[in-house]
């Protein structure tokens, strides 16, 4: 019947039809959306009845009559409203993806299912990620398999797209475990980390290693870190808190062991031999100003065992010359003849006094320590390492056995006589355990190694990370090249790891700290 001379529009219409009429004719609407510059009016009550997202939005903006929508096109927003008011909507395949995203934004699950059914009629790389999410959300195995088949065809491209961030954790795990595609472990970690960072933002959580670790807990089990490139693991994984320290140590040991056991190809062996026989060339290691004017091999155990004596440079503290005798511990000094003050037995016991003094001014004559081994980590020597701006040199060590560190060898001056002042500290798990400040030693410009004795020796525990860090002041010095990441002497192994505190170029390949004197527990 007409009311006041007008036909009542409700007559002959059911609830759905009335809702549509109110939407189309903006009857008593109470909220305005500005979508792509166009005003679209609707009713709060209807929107709240179908979407928790709208309810939350209206609660926050209760006094506002106008809401900006920037990521949905006007005609797509209208289709979404049509479904909200009538539970039905007409759309084609080209609109399905856009409508699916709008429904996802406002949490309208029934509309998402409609769009999903339309999209899966023609699955492509453009819609495969949201389809995968829907398939996993509904836990429909047949749909999962169908969509994954399409995903694997363009997996490399899709894993570098933002669509990967939409996938649920279980889907990411299945992709990493699949034998349908070939993914490097580095690529897996990159994708997993970006995925976790995106999820942190969606959940309004701080993007930090603690939260990323929590979100990636089951995912990291699918990544074989021990198969990563050593440099990648060092620079992108070990310097985060995503893995536990004990696992990082274990992975480093596997990486180094694997690297050291790989046989050289014939051409690589030839290149190595040719390089060692060629004249030295200039190197520029990580900010060091290297003038490679001299190359010399560090005496190794095999060399010492095959030669009766090796001539050393003149000791600046004695007019006599020192020579090296062959032995299992690396370079072991024989005191010069005729000097009763320096004549000592080869089995001189370690002096464990309470003093923190180092015998740095006596480079070789005090180096004989009972039951110790010296682990040399470089294969050659160059000259020209600079010490500028108080930048520290640092290297981290993982010992295979518990025992005592008795001394550290440092490189000396390669330019005539020079004096050095050293501030050295040893850290365990990041905490300083021994500090040795303002120690000085002199170098005559020829003698390459200078023993810095640690007295009393410092206790090392097997499989724990220790860091040697040093700030050195003085002239340019020799420095090591062709460093080894794992060194074994007798049955003692030191695994060396780059340390972020080392800002002066020292790392596993080059730099300072050529040797370590270590006594293993019996």
From TrEMBL:
Taxonomic superkingdom: Eukaryota
Region ranges (Disordered): 267-297, 320-362
GO cellular component, one term: cytoplasm
Pfam families: BACK, BTB, PHR
Keywords: Cytoplasm
Subcellular location: Cytoplasm
Ranges of biased composition (kind: Low complexity): 344-355
SMART domains linked to this entry: BACK (SM00875), BTB (SM00225)
Main subcellular localisation: cytoplasm
InterPro entries: BACK, BTB/POZ_dom, PHR, PHR_sf, SKP1/BTB/POZ_sf
SUPFAM superfamilies: POZ domain (SSF54695)
BTB domain: residues covered: 29-93
PANTHER family attached to this UniProt entry: BTB (POZ) DOMAIN-CONTAINING 2B-RELATED, BTB/POZ DOMAIN-CONTAINING
Protein name per UniProt: BTB domain-containing protein
Organism the protein comes from: Magallana gigas
